[in-house]
Amino acid sequence: MSSIIEYIRKSQIWRSVFRHPAPYDRRNRAVVVLTNFFLHLHPVSVKKGGIALSYTWCMGGVTFFLFLVEALTGVLLMFYYRPTLEWAFTDIRALRDVTTLGIMREIHRWGAHAMVITVWLHMYRVFLTGSYKPPREFNWVIGVILLVLTLLLSFTGYLLPWDQLAIWAITVGSNMARATPFLGHEGPGFQLLNIGGYDLITNASDARFLLLGARTVGEETLNRFYIMHCVAIPIVVSLLIAIHFWRVRKDGGISQPL
Amino acid sequence: MNPHPDLTAGVIRGLGWLYLLLALANVYWSVRSFKKDGYYERLFGIDHVPKAFGWAAYASILLLFACAHLVFSSSADDFMIRLPEFFKSNVDILIANPISYFVISIVIFVAMVVWRNWWVEPTIAWILFNMSVLFLALSMTDYDFRQIVGKPDNVPIVAMLYLVGFFTWLYFYKCRDNDRRLANGLPPAEKELSETVLTWPDLVYSEMICMVLLTVVLILWGVALPAPLEEPASAVKTPNPSKAPWYFLGLQEMLVYFDPWMAGVVLPTVILGGLMAIPYIDFNKIGNGYYVYEKRKFAVLTFLFGFLPLWVAMIVLGTFIRGPNWNMFGLYEYWDVHKLEVLNNVNLSDMFWLDLMRQPLPRPDSTAAWYVQLVTILQREWLGLVLIVLYLVALPPIMALTVFRKFFARMGFLRFMVLANLILMMWSLPLKMALRWSLNLKYIVAIPEFFFNI
Known about the structure:
The complex is a heterodimer. Chain A is mostly helical. Helices cover 63% and strands 3% of the residues of chain A. Chain A has two domains: 1-42, no CATH class; 56-250, Cytochrome Bc1 Complex, Chain C (Up-down Bundle), CATH 1.20.810. Chain A contains twelve helices and three strands. In chain A, strands 2-3 form a two-stranded antiparallel sheet. In chain A, strand 2 and strand 3 form a beta hairpin. Chain A is globular and about 80 Å long. By secondary structure, chain B is mainly α. Chain B has three domains: 1-81, no CATH class; 82-191 and 200-227 and 241-341, no CATH class; 348-453, no CATH class. Helix content of chain B is 64%, strand content 4%. In chain B, the strands form two sheets. Chain B has a two-stranded antiparallel ribbon. A two-stranded antiparallel sheet of chain B has the order 4-5. The radius of gyration of chain B is 27 Å and the shape is globular. The model of chain B has no long low-confidence stretch (mean pLDDT 91). The interface between A and B is large, with 100 and 89 residues. Strand 1 of chain A pairs antiparallel with strand 3 of chain B, so a sheet runs across the interface.
């Protein structure tokens, strides 16, 4: 048995996929982290105090893992779900009642709630260990942007089931945009933006309209939120996550002065 | 048949499992206590009694509780173990009132900080944890409590409360040790473990275990609790109350005290800008890479105050306590759509002109040019405008010269101004709340003509 494994490991195919020998000794354990794409997010060696679970809480890692879970289950749900007034609700109900592996929706939804919580807890830990202090100031800023994007991801996804819970939560949430200073049609100062007595900011051109694509939450909104939820925001988030992790590496780990 | 079933057999069985879990946790705790806590020299005339005895007794009572729930077979209405009514009504009175709710949350916050070295003691923390679980379990026997807390989308909030509580405990627990070390000139505990280990296997394996556990949790959660799906969307049937997603309920709560342009746009922007500004205004070099409280008191207290009473407690309020018409309801209170709350809020300009000057408010002439109207409006609202300007412009220099003198000297002008304004913005919420409760104040500056109300 072991000789078969040995044979496979030494074959050209195996070695072309895994560029490193099995991580059995100290040298190869370092090599594996350096040469594996997925593991190179990590440094080769870390401070023992820096990886203790009671110190890191592992919340950033959990958030990233949840993001991957959301991406995977989300793609599976996209195969099934149609973002139209005619089908959106029916498709979700079918996911609940008849579809095989309809549990993907449960995992997606609970994973999303969990992700919001773990992002907060990650930020909580980073604050409490002072890990935003030099040289990591800007990485904290990226983290805050990622927090906002996480909330937006969750918010845009909230509409997609197209039930009462969804449209009214989005209605309440997006009503605020009406009151944006200068750019909302019920916001302070919108009257200043007018040409020759005609208001530039009306209920069909203000910040809320931009968000919803209509005067009220309707099919345009569903389409807009679907694209935001499945394409636009995830792309930006992926890019920022890459930068976030890269900076953690370059700054010498998750905390402590460089 | 009881049309309003207080308790169902399914709930009783579910609670049985909860008590069983708690009993098992306390069996573990008894063993831990037996190893660590030592003995009472003499108790009830018996020598040398292990302190773990109390925990063992408690665990067996919980076990009896669990059995009582799990084997129960007659009518659920007769079930004995439930929350007493006088407890419920008193809790409701305390909670369904904004003043007492916020006072209690602030008192808990202050007590948490002041007695941090007492409650982080593992035994005390364990007692507090047990009390919270018992409170939750007994409350679940109440119909109205179950309607709110048992909503699928609200379950994560309960989980969040326990997680936030646990991590806050962990923080103060680690600080107790580190504060003592730093006071004695020793390095923090985290620095003691400065030897390096290889990422493979030390880090990679624990990440792997985390991922597996999390996957299991998500799948079990998905199996146990179906995702919510209500009636199909209808633009004409407005639910009462209409709530934003739970993580925005802190912001929705601010709508009670501020207009949408403040609560929904300006304050969230300030919160995010303030968070981003933290690394640039915190000049304290201490506490980078370890948990410490004493030497970064101001930063930690500000953050904790913003996160715990002003964010988490507001989400709890918005989710569990705000009911129809955005009225406040006790945890055990029926969400009655017809509950009436007398609100008669007045603007500062009303107070000034009507009550103090005994004359009608200056009224802008709607046929006049806009700048003529503006002058009248400014005359009407001058007191509020002056107060706002004083608050945001005059207060920072006063802070720099008095309480924040040392900060100002070390931070420089720009940094200090950013800090001072952020702090003032943060305090604007509790201040506006206090003004509302004490004076029924609606707006400090009320210019509905321009949608400019503060």
